[in-house]
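Please produce the structure of this protein holding adenosine monophosphate.
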Amino acid sequence: MTTPVTENPTIFGKILAGQIPCKKVYEDADVLAFHDINPVAEVHFLIIPKKYIPTLADIDASDTALMGKMLSLVPALAKEQGLTGGFRTAINTGRLGGQEVYHLHIHVFGNRPGGEPLRSLVGKA
Ligand code: AMP
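Below is the modeled complex.
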């Protein structure tokens, strides 16, 4: 069952409720995507479920289709935003995972073609 957005205490809940604006990238019945207010790359947007799920650690089997849909949207939206040369995705989870907004979100970010590649984070000390 979808938790009403009025019970969502986060800033993303306010965006979903239309109480604060966002620069929308995509919306359907299940998800909203919008530009990050503090981008770390030339293009940086977030994909969130409309269902209130605080963190990736809170999903269960009933969220499988929703999570698949969100991840499946990434390449099409990234391409639409000009990220044809590649992009990075991130889901920060919990305090030690660096999560600041406790409404599950996928970060998608990257430079436009011709920009410097993002430095790899994986495998570096
Ligand atoms: P995280 O650390 O993974 O929880 O990331 C939260 C992200 O939300 C950060 O990149 C913020 O810049 C972004 N953010 C916070 N408030 C807003 C807002 N009102 N509109 C768009 N992005 C936001």
